[in-house]
Design goal:
Blueprint lengths: L2 H16 L40 H4 L11 E4 H4 L8 H4 L6 E4 L11 E4 L2 E2 L4 E4 L2 E2 L19 E7 L16 E6 L7 E9 L3 E9 L9 E12 L6 E15 L3 E3 L2 E10 L6 H7 L21 E10 L2 E4 L4 E16 L1 E6 L4 E2 L2 E2 L12 E7 L1 E17 L2 E17 L1 E4 L27 E19 L4 E18 L7 E20 L2 E12 L10 E2 L6 E3 L8 E12 L3 E13 L2 E8 L2 E8 L3 E12 L5 E14 L3 E3 L2 E3 L12 E10 L3 E10 L2 E2 L7 E2 L2 E11 L7 E10 L7 E6 L7 E2 L5 E2 L5 E4 L4 E9 L1
Parallel strand pairs: 5-8
Antiparallel strand pairs: 1-7, 2-3, 3-4, 5-6, 7-8, 9-10, 9-49, 10-11, 11-12, 12-13, 12-14, 13-16, 14-15, 15-17, 16-17, 17-22, 18-21, 19-20, 21-24, 22-23, 23-25, 25-26, 26-27, 27-28, 28-31, 29-30, 31-32, 32-35, 33-34, 35-36, 36-39, 37-38, 39-40, 40-43, 41-42, 43-44, 44-49, 45-48, 46-47
Subcellular location: Cell outer membrane
Protein name: TonB-dependent receptor plug domain-containing protein
Pfam families: Plug (PF07715)
């Protein structure tokens, strides 16, 4: 069945459901937007008293909260989040979830230069939302989860492995959706102090102050600040991060709520190397950037760093217009300014600005006509928009209609800064650039992209048989417009792309008993091409030739997926699901050094079929103990041969890249109200890193341990505690994932007889051992 015929089938089914009549009450937020409508909801009849939000009531030690939506969703709560290292980010917290593979590069979880994949689909194919707004890099699709919130303020993190909410403001979500939200403010004045230290000179301080309810206004909120720093666990260099969170909530009447928040983040980090397999086999984790400079050494650590500053704010609001009609609206704004640098060598005479000769440059600190330079790649982004929908309930029928508008602006232009004989540059941020003989700033590319999104959706939910049977159908039309310009001589000045993507979905669930549920769904999703390189030409300044050209095939990736699942909740909790995907225009993101600077590219791998099964089991706290088990089997294959250099690589039937056949986690949590701890061991099977399956990384296992003790309240110190986190306790040496995949690693003869040279993938080096000790108390 073709994509369009299947889409028509979904639409007919949707029409039939929407025309049905209604007789009983439905709660649409549980079905249509289980992630977008999510907030930290805690109802405790018995639980642990703590200052950091731990209640010890979630099955599996905080790894298996109850879900009711007709699709696979896994999640974590404060019962798990608070017991992990306070330095960690939201993606690292998800590594125990079924189907989620985290390619971590540092044990502390502080670095955003990592990768996560779900069911073999990497993070550029996963939609990310925080407090109802789209987050992360809107062009390269990196989540940058350290920007979202400090771990002490995270209320929950959920992952929908199969499909996003129909109301979600995302456009790269063929691999599902990750959604996170902040904790709710306290009703009473107080706060939390947390101090941590440990391996590699780790130091971190966190302070939060809750206002409590402010008089008769009913407004409550909090503001927090944190600072952290650490040395890189391998090589030289380190990282610093400063972060502010602020949230206020006002609730009134029946279902009215406004909850504005603001987050500010500033990070500066020295980069890690990404070795090839040959470099890893030869040097292991000793293959690093150099701590000392010699002339011409482009691997000098000070050249390779990134800095990123982010401001994001949103005002999630729910207003009951009438007893039957509710408005949900989230206006938002996000600003990013970042830089990611590398190193290279410039020839004083043989140098080009686009396709034009640019010399002589008359470079200082040159030897034999050559100078070492720091490649400077700054970018500025801002986005603003709103996501709104109306929910109308009558009897057992709930109808939703929504509209999402988003404006996004991205500017990025490279330059070069000359290094002196000690390896220092006058300015690493582009304020003292190398100029051409004609006085222009020497650049490899200079691009500007404006994107606008208009998306409409309608969804209808019905319940029958005393609310045991739930049917839902919806349709979303996402219209994406991108306009790019390039100012480099010889490049294509303007490139435009306009897409209107139909996204139907249907689902059904049946509650067999109050604790048993079956469900099935059919959904669609899409992903726009990633990276500025898809729209802007990049030149090699040493040759005047294009090192990459803008794509002439800018069609979005499109997926059709089906799931069939079962859930049981009780003392023992079980969730299992079978899934199937079909992809067209599968966009595989890869990274490489271009002119010495890391760049991201999209490869159109054509069609792909993925199917498998996932499951998780968690015990409700029983005698203070909560075990957890999750696993996934995945079979993913490429559906066609890969076009390359006028020929075809015989990739049809090969296993898709970064798709381990087996993965899973075993966990155990203990908490008696005073002493607490948990253990988690994760296994990831081997993964191919080329389309031809001629190179792979072996499987690996890692394990983490938490130990802690919670004291009684002592004067103004409310429930102080000490906590020790041991990460990768076996100090496993492994490659955690692919930084850049390639079509083939070895020279291959194509279908039509052409000899197609191979290129080696580059890899993430898995995080080593670390120990973190933290002391915290409420007040």
């Amino acid at each position: 069945m073709t994509r369009h015929s299947r889409a028509r089938l979904f639409l007919r089914t949707a029409t039939c459901v929407v025309l049905a009549h209604s007789i009983q009450l439905a709660r649409a937020e549980d079905i249509v937007s289980p992630l977008q409508d999510r907030e930290e909801r805690i109802t405790v009849t018995r639980g642990t008293a703590s200052a950091n939000g731990v209640t010890n009531t979630t099955p599996g030690g905080g790894l298996m909260p109850r879900q009711t939506a007709a699709k696979t969703i896994s999640g974590i709560t404060r019962d798990f989040i608070a017991k992990q290292s306070p330095t960690t980010n939201a993606l690292t917290l998800l590594k125990a979830m079924p189907g989620v593979i985290v390619s971590s590069v540092d044990p502390l979880g502080t670095s955003d230069r990592m990768n996560v994949s779900i069911r073999g689909l990497n993070q550029t194919e996963i939609g990310t939302t925080f407090e109802g707004m789209p987050v992360g890099d809107r062009l390269y699709y990196s989540p940058f989860t350290s920007e979202w919130a400090d771990s002490e303020n995270l209320g929950f993190v959920d992952v929908a492995q199969g499909s996003p909410d129909i109301s979600a403001p995302v456009y790269n979500s063929v691999g599902g959706q990750i959604n996170a939200g902040l904790r709710n403010p306290s009703d009473h004045f107080g706060g939390l102090v947390d101090a941590a230290g440990g391996s590699k000179a780790t130091n971190r301080a966190f302070l939060r102050v809750d206002t409590g309810r402010l008089g008769a206004s009913g407004i409550k909120g909090y503001v927090s600040f944190s600072h952290s720093g650490n040395d890189n666990w391998r090589g030289t260099g380190g990282q610093t991060r400063d972060h502010v969170d602020a949230r206020f909530v006002k609730e009134w009447g029946d279902g009215n709520r406004i909850a504005p928040f603001l987050a500010w983040n500033l990070v500066r980090a020295d980069l890690f190397t990404n070795p090839t397999l040959a470099q890893w086999n030869a040097s292991g984790d000793s293959y690093n950037y150099a701590g000392n400079y010699t002339f011409g050494n482009t691997m000098y650590q000070k050249f390779h760093f990134y800095r990123r500053q982010t401001v994001m704010m949103a005002v999630p609001s729910n207003v009951a217009l009438t007893a039957a009609l509710k408005l949900s609206v989230t206006p938002y704004f996000m600003y990013n300014h970042g830089i990611i640098n590398g190193g290279s060598v410039l020839n004083d005479d043989n140098v080009f600005y686009g396709n034009r000769p640019a010399g002589p440059l008359n470079l200082p600190y040159s030897v034999n006509g050559q100078a070492t330079v720091e490649n400077v790649d700054p970018y500025t982004q801002f986005s603003a928009g709103q996501n709104a929908y109306l929910t109308w309930t009558r009897g057992h029928n709930t109808l939703q209609f929504g509209y999402w508008y988003d404006y996004f602006d991205h500017n990025e232009a490279t330059s070069f800064a000359v290094a002196d004989f000690a390896g220092n540059v006058a300015n690493s941020y582009g304020h003292a650039p190398v100029l051409t003989a004609g006085g222009d700033v020497l650049r490899s590319f200079d691009g500007h992209i404006i994107q606008q999104i208009n998306a409409l959706f309608i969804s209808d939910t019905l319940r029958f048989l005393d609310n045991r049977l739930t049917l839902n159908a919806g349709f979303k039309d996402a219209m994406v417009s991108r306009s790019a310009t390039s100012l480099i001589p010889g490049s294509t000045y303007a490139v435009t792309a306009n897409d209107a993507v139909p996204l139907p979905q249907v689902s059904a669930s049946y509650r067999i008993t109050p604790n048993d549920q079956i469900y099935l769904n059919g959904t669609t999703a899409f992903r726009e091409p990633a990276s500025i390189n898809s729209y802007v030409d990049i030149f090699n300044v040493a040759t005047g030739k294009m090192s990459s050209t803008h794509s002439t095939n800018l069609r979005p990736e499109y997926s059709i997926s089906e799931e069939f699942g079962y859930r049981h909740y009780g003392l023992v909790n079980v969730s299992a699901a079978f899934f199937n995907y079909n992809f067209t225009n599968r966009q595989v993101s890869t990274s490489a050094l271009v002119n010495g600077t890391p760049e991201t590219f999209s490869l159109n791998a054509g069609g792909q079929t993925s199917r498998g099964v996932q499951a998780e089991v968690g015990l409700r706290p029983w005698h203070h103990v909560s075990p957890y088990l999750s696993g996934q089997y995945l079979h993913a294959t490429i559906d066609n041969n890969f076009a390359r250099s006028g020929d075809l690589l015989p990739t049809k039937g090969k296993t898709a890249v970064l798709s381990p056949e087996f993965s899973g986690t075993i966990g155990l949590s203990y908490d008696d109200g005073a002493a607490f701890g948990n253990f988690a061991m994760t296994y990831v099977g081997s993964q191919y890193t080329t389309f031809m399956n001629d190179q792979h990384i072996p499987g690996y296992e890692t394990a983490n341990v938490t130990l802690g003790y919670r004291f009684h309240t002592l004067g103004p110190a409310r429930h102080p505690q000490v906590q020790v986190n041991l990460i990768n306790i076996g100090n496993e040496k492994y490659l955690s994932g692919a930084y850049g995949v390639t079509p083939n690693a070895r020279t291959i003869r194509g279908v039509y007889g052409t000899s197609l040279a191979g290129s080696s993938p580059a890899y993430y080096v898995g995080a080593g051992f670390a120990a973190i000790v933290s002391l915290s108390t409420g007040f």
